[in-house]
Amino acid sequence: MKVPLQITARNFELTEAIEDTIREKAEKLDLCYDKIMRCSVLVEAPHRHHHKGLLYNVRIDITMPGKELAVTRETHEDLYVAIGNAFRAACRQLEKYTERLRGDVKHHEEKPLAFVSALFQEKGYGFLTTSDGREIYFHRNSVIEDKFKDLNIGTKVCFVEESGEKGPQASTVKLS
């Protein structure tokens, strides 16, 4: 961090041990993203008349080049748990930000499309024909949301293929 950490307490006094814990966790944020310019932590006990005792909120404000990040965690009775939860959430957000900067994007594999080419309703199975002309067996139990009865010849579906005892079969079939 380029600017020293700022720690503020509201409605109660911070002990030296708590401040040390916050400093230690703030230093670890640099491992999540090394260009943090400023970090301020606000610890507050907003609910003074609560039946279970004091509940703590932790807010972390982080300034980086071109971006500001604010993390607020729900209240917790244990101050150390509240602090830990807030810093873990801040680290996750910093890691996501770093991934976006690097252009790391998750690519989800597209499920292949096919159409129902044979259907044996009374026996509970059928066949799909893929776009490359292959025939894939499927059972009524592999049809998602119990929609086997809604299938007809020509119905377009997405499927997940696996190897079966007698060749390729669809482990999952979903109407598209």
Written overview of the protein:
The strands form two sheets. The chain has a five-stranded mixed barrel with strand order 5-6-7-9-8. A four-stranded mixed beta sheet has the order 1-2-3-4, with helices on one face. 17% of the residues are buried. The mean pLDDT is 87. It has two helices and nine strands; from the N terminus they run βαβββαβββββ. Helix 1 packs parallel to helix 2 (79-102). It is of the alpha+beta class and 176 residues long. It has two domains: 6-102, 2-Layer Sandwich (Double Stranded RNA Binding Domain), CATH 3.30.160; 113-175, OB fold (Dihydrolipoamide Acetyltransferase, E2P). It has helices at 16-32, 79-102, and strands at 6-10, 38-44, 56-64, 67-76, 113-120, 125-130, 135-139, 156-164, 167-175.
Number of helices: 2
Main beta sheet strand tally, sense and closure: 5 strands, mixed, barrel
Q: What fold name goes in the CATH topology slot of the largest domain? A: Double Stranded RNA Binding Domain
Can you tell me the CATH class of the largest domain? Alpha Beta
Termini separation comes to 50 Å
Q: Give average pLDDT, whole number.
A: 87
| DSSP strand count | 9
**Cα Rg:** 27 Å
**Whole-number count of domains:** 2
Shape: elongated
Q: What are the SSEs and their pairings?
A:
Elements: E1 6-10, H1 16-32, E2 38-44, E3 56-64, E4 67-76, H2 79-102, E5 113-120, E6 125-130, E7 135-139, E8 156-164, E9 167-175
Helix pairs in contact: 1-2
